[in-house]
Design a protein that fits this description.
CATH topology of chain A: Arc Repressor Mutant, subunit A
Bound molecules: FE2/S2 (inorganic) cluster
Largest interface: A-B, 57 and 57 residues
CATH superfamily of chain A: Winged helix-like DNA-binding domain superfamily/Winged helix DNA-binding domain
Low-confidence stretches of chain A: none
CATH architecture of chain A: Orthogonal Bundle
Shape of chain A: elongated
Number of helices of chain A: 7
Oligomer: homodimer
Radius of gyration of chain A: 21 Å
CATH class of chain A: Mainly Alpha
Number of domains of chain A: 1
Order of helices and strands of chain A: HHHEEHHHH
Helix content of chain A: 40-55%
Structural class of chain A: mainly alpha
Strand content of chain A: 5-15%
Chain lengths: 158, 158
C-alpha cells in the first residue's frame, strides 16, 4: 500500500489540529513530517479532487480541510489516494486453456474465485468506512492530550 | 494484488477436480489456463513451502494437493503467495518533523493511523479465512455441475 495514505491521513489530522482559517502551504505541511514537497503535493491534489481538502492557488495559497474530521472516513482517504479500483484484478484465466471452448454464457457471472476475493475486499472497505478521522484524532488525544497545543506551537516556530 | 493468487487458487481447484493420485507436472497445470510455466512454477513452489501442495521432483514429478479443499482457506493461499506482511506499511512519519523532539516513550504504542489501517486488514484477513476452497468449488459446481467431468476430459486429451 502506497505511503500516500499514511501521509494523507497525517496531513488531515495536522490541518485539523492547527485549526487555521488560512490555507497552509505544501512546504509547511511537508515540513511537519519531513516529507518531499513535490510528492506530498500530488497526494494533496488527490485529496482536493476528492473534496476532502480545498486548494487555494498562488503565493499565499495552500490547502485547508473542507469538512470536519467526523465526516471523513478512512475509506474516503484511501479511495482518494489509491483510486476506486479493486486491489484484486481478475485476469479471466478461466476463459483460457481448458475453458477456451466453453459457451460465452458460462462467463456471464463473475468467477467464484474473483467473488471470494471481492467479498474480502468488501469487508476491508466496510472496516475502513466505519472509522472516521475524528475517531483517530480522539484515540491520538487519549494517548497525547496536548497534541493540538504541540502542533500549534510547532507551527508558530516554523 | 499479484496474479499469483488467481493462478494458485485455480490450480488447487484444478488438482482437486482431476483427483489424480499421480503428481501433475507444471507444464500440464500451466496449459490448463495457458499460463507461463516458469512463473506458475514459482507460485507452485510457494504453495508447496506453505504445505498446501506436495512437490515431487524428477521427470515424472509435479504437484499434488496435500490436504482436502475443506482445509485450505483463501487466507492460506494469499499468505502462501503474498507473504505474511501487512499490505499497509507504516514508515513512522510521526517521529519526523514536528514529532522529532517527542520522548521515545510516546512511540511505544503503534500510531493510531497505523492501527486504523491494521483494523481494516484484520477484517480482510478474517473474511479470507472464513472462505475455504471447498466453498468456492461448491459455488462453481452450482453454476457448472459438470465441472469435474470437463476437467478430467480436458486432461485426458492434453
Ligand atoms: S478467472 Fe479470474 S479469478 Fe477466476
Ligand atoms: S506514523 Fe505511520 S501511520 Fe502514523
Amino acid at each position: 500500500m502506497n505511503e500516500g495514505v499514511e501521509w494523507a491521513v497525517h496531513v488531515c489530522l495536522l490541518l485539523d489540529w492547527l485549526g487555521s482559517d488560512e490555507p497552509v502551504s505544501t512546504t509547511r505541511l511537508a515540513s511537519g513530517y519531513e516529507l518531499p514537497p513535490p510528492y506530498l503535493n500530488k497526494q494533496l491534489q488527490a485529496l482536493a479532487r476528492a473534496g476532502i481538502l480545498a486548494s487555494t492557488p498562488g503565493a499565499r495559497g495552500g490547502f485547508r480541510l473542507v469538512r470536519p474530521l467526523e465526516k471523513i472516513t478512512m475509506m474516503d482517504v484511501v479511495t482518494a489516494i489509491e483510486g476506486p479500483d479493486e486491489a484484486f484484478q481478475c485476469t479471466e484465466i478461466r476463459r483460457r486453456g481448458m475453458g477456451a471452448n466453453r459457451a460465452e454464457r458460462a462467463f456471464e457471472v463473475p468467477c467464484t474465485v474473483h467473488t471470494a476475493m471481492r467479498n474480502a475486499e468488501f469487508a476491508w472497505r466496510r472496516a475502513l468506512a466505519a472509522q472516521t478521522l475524528a475517531d483517530i484524532r480522539a484515540r491520538t488525544e487519549r494517548l497525547l492530550p496536548t497534541m493540538g497545543e504541540r502542533v500549534r506551537a510547532w507551527y508558530e516556530l516554523n
